[in-house]
Amino acid sequence: MSRPVISIRGLEVGARSRHGMLRPLRGIDLDLPRGATTGLVGESGCGKSMTARALLNITPNPMRITAGSVLLDNGAAGSIDLARLEPDGAPMRAIRGRRLAMIFQEPMTAFSPVHTIGNQIAEMLTIHERLDKRAAKERAIEMLDLVGMPNARQRFDAFPFNLSGGMRQRAMIAMALACKPDVLVADEPTTALDVTIQAQILELLARLQAELGMTVLLITHDLGVVARNTSRVAVMYLGQVVEETTTEALFDTPMHPYTQGLLGSVPRLGSRHGKRERLPAMRGSVPPALSELPGCAFHPRCPKAVPGLCDVVKPAMAEVAEGHRARCLLYPEVLVASKALEAAA
Ligand code: SF4
Asked: Ligand 1: does its nearest atom lie under 6 Å from the Cβ of 299?
């Protein structure tokens, strides 16, 4: 298997606040295989968007990367640890845009309202690809055409507010992909759109991914979107990945009680092969990023929690089946790994 294009290890993000230390990311381990779409799922507040931002080294103030690494494969030159680069320094800015790009739920976040979308895409190309003005304009029109913008040449001169939500989303994708990045991070890219436009945008992303050979991290709370559009999935809970495997295995045999609870809220998606067995639904909500819980962070909500174990031992991540990792003490492999970690601490 080729080296993952992104390899995240032990990534932590935090900030001091009046109420204590905020820790939205508490040791993320995640690989993005080259050319694949990996889904990142979990309820609001689990740290999905913060993972995306930390990957691009754009954590919102005052949040900072406090530990861990984000290794970007750099071919024969080895890898670059993005977590060690200055967020606003020239090396990081060059990597953002050229090698990594991001699209958001709300395209207005990406565009300046006072410049035309065409000029904003062309500017990316003059900065990162060093194209002259005329060549940048032609390439920007090509990109608008590629993402299915009707009358791309005329739309070059449109302002963001001139476009519908779906068209703005297409324009943002054109801008993100203008420099043909290796990795696209898509944070809830279709959540604000109606179902028909949502399907069109996801289809467009899948087509562009195949055409450009991109690696995609697709962040969503929508398990249906994950089932249809990803080949691997990582499930997050309170700043950690708690389960990670192929999309097929996750939907057919979810192994972490949190994943089982998420799938239980959408019974029709409990299996991609038509098994309709009902998984346990979930009670409660994700604790705030300030929380420091003993043992497993999910234990107050877990229907399978074992008193005296789950509220005491912090579960490590371990392989519980071939290619399937989970962070739950019910699996002997996890228990052994967790005890070993405890002993080493
Ligand atoms: Fe539930 Fe215990 Fe597993 Fe945590 S470790 S998910 S509390 S069974």
From this structure: yes
- Provide the residue ranges of all domains of the chain, joining segments of one domain with +: 1-99+183-264, 110-180, 293-345
The residue whose CB lies within 8 Å of the most ligand 1 atoms, and thus the one to mutate among 255, 296, 333, is 296
**Of residues 191 and 310, which shows the higher confidence score?**
310
Q: How far apart are CA 185 and CA 183, in angstroms?
A: 7
At position 108, the amino acid (one-letter code) is M
In this structure, are residues 224 and 138 in contact, taking their beta carbons and an 8 Å threshold?
Answer: no
d(CA 148, CA 169): 11
330 lines ligand 1 (CB under 6 A): yes
Distance of CA 2 to the CA centre of its chain: 21
CATH 3.60.15.10 is held by the domain 1-99+183-264: no
How far, CA to CA in Å, does 240 sit from each of 1, 48, 201, 219, 255? 25, 9, 29, 15, 16
* Among 81-95, 215-229, 275-289, the least confident range: 275-289
pLDDT at position 276: 45
Strand order in the sheet with 240-246: 100-103, 183-187, 215-219, 37-41, 232-237, 240-246, 324-326, 318-321
User: Which residues 6+ apart lie within 8 Å of 14 measured at CB?
Assistant: 21, 22, 23, 24, 25, 63, 64, 66
Whether 238 lines ligand 1, by a CB cut-off of 6 Å, is no
- Give 165's Cβ-side CA count (13 Å radius): 14
What are the backbone dihedrals phi and psi of residue 195, each rounded to the nearest 5 degrees, phi first?
-60, -40
Q: Give pLDDT tens digits for 294-306.
A: 999 999 999 999 9
CA distance 135 to 227: 39
The burial class, CB within 10 Å (0-12 / 13-18 / 19+), for 105 is middle
Residue 28 Cβ < 6 Å to ligand 1: no
Summarised one tens digit per residue, pLDDT across range 212-254 is 889 999 999 889 899 999 999 999 999 999 999 999 999 999 9
**Beta-bridge partner residues of 100:** 96, 183
